[in-house]
Amino acid sequence: MLYNQWVNVLRWEKTTRPFLRTSEFLWQEGHTIHSSKQEAQQFTLKILDIYATFAEKTLLLPVIKGQKTEREKFAGAEETYTIESLMYDGQALQCGTSHYFGQNFSKAFDIKFSNQKNTLEYAYSTSWGVSTRLIGGLIMTHSDDNGLVLPPQIAPIQIMILPINNDNDEQLFAVEQLQKKLHKYRCEIDQSDKGFGFRAANAEIKGIPLRIEIGARDLAQQQVTIARRDTFEKITVSWTEVEKVVSDLLDQIATNLYQRALDNRHQRTKKIDNYSEYKKTLAKINGLFLVPFCCRIECEDTIKAETQTTSRCIPFDVPTKKTTCFHCGQPATNLVYFARAY
After folding, report:
1. Which of 128, 142, 184, 238 is at 20 to 30 A from 90, Cα to Cα?
2. What is the pTM of this model?
3. What is the tens place of the pLDDT at every residue in 206-222?
């Protein structure tokens, strides 16, 4: 049985942050009930993969897939899996979670089914969700002091066409023809009565990936000027090549935004083996710190109280090594990412 829903949620938040942690928010949540443990566990990880693919391919947010520690897992879950992203300022953000409940909630609510042996058995369940927090993550990963920077795939307007002179009939006719030429994109014309500088800045603030400008000189030379939002680079393109260049540039912008975020994460990821070095590094930078950890709740509570950092996940792609916990010196069960987080 599979249920998926979009719902508004109200909850008590001691400290709110726009998009990231609000008293009311919209989220997508799903629930499944399965006849076997194996099927439920597989579905939990399948959803995690769907979330990770969406985050990386559509939102261009590099994420780390992993399992939550005992302290950070969802109450009532046997296992909680997460996708974690690093914001531009070096703080982590939990972007989505998927939970394997086993039979815990089935037993609590007496949910049984008749199995193939015709005997009653408690069902195995999962739950998973993402929320408008992803919008906050999107803003904090890609944007800059000039405003939003939006991935081309989700930008409400992918291309803004600006006539330099809104009172010039020849320029207005040209931009209308160009809009028709680029009909397969979300393309608009800014014909407002504001000056050109205001209109150009307005397109930047809104994070529109490409801005195409057409003035008297462009018309005379049968060309257009294209400006990229991610790099502010401007190029001139002949009228006949506009469609191909626009397609290439949108792909380049997507590649650049993802790589820029990934580079930032790499630069801010450190491997640390002892608590003293951990605190010294934290005093200098925010980032992801991969540490050998015992995964005991009391140990993690102490680390959080002393450093305001929490475990983010036990990553799937990092092999476990037998060593000692970076904080307490007891045997370490896993390598774990810690960070300050939103």
Report:
1. 128
2. 0.94
3. 999 999 999 999 999 99
DSSP state of 288: E
Convert the pLDDT of each residue in 282-316 to its tens digit.
Answer: 999 999 999 999 999 999 999 999 999 999 999 99
**Distance between CA 92 and CA 260 in Å, rounded?**
16
Residue type at position 257: L
- Asked whether the beta carbons of 292 and 321 are under 8 A apart, the reply is yes
Helix (H) or strand (E) holding 335: strand 334-339
Q: Are 99 and 32 in contact (CB under 8 A)?
A: no
Q: Are strands 334-339 and 288-293 parallel, antiparallel or unpaired?
A: antiparallel
CB environment 164-189: b (16+ within 10 A), e (fewer): bebeeeebbebbeebbeebeebebeb
DSSP code per residue over 176-192: HHHHHHTTTS-EEE---
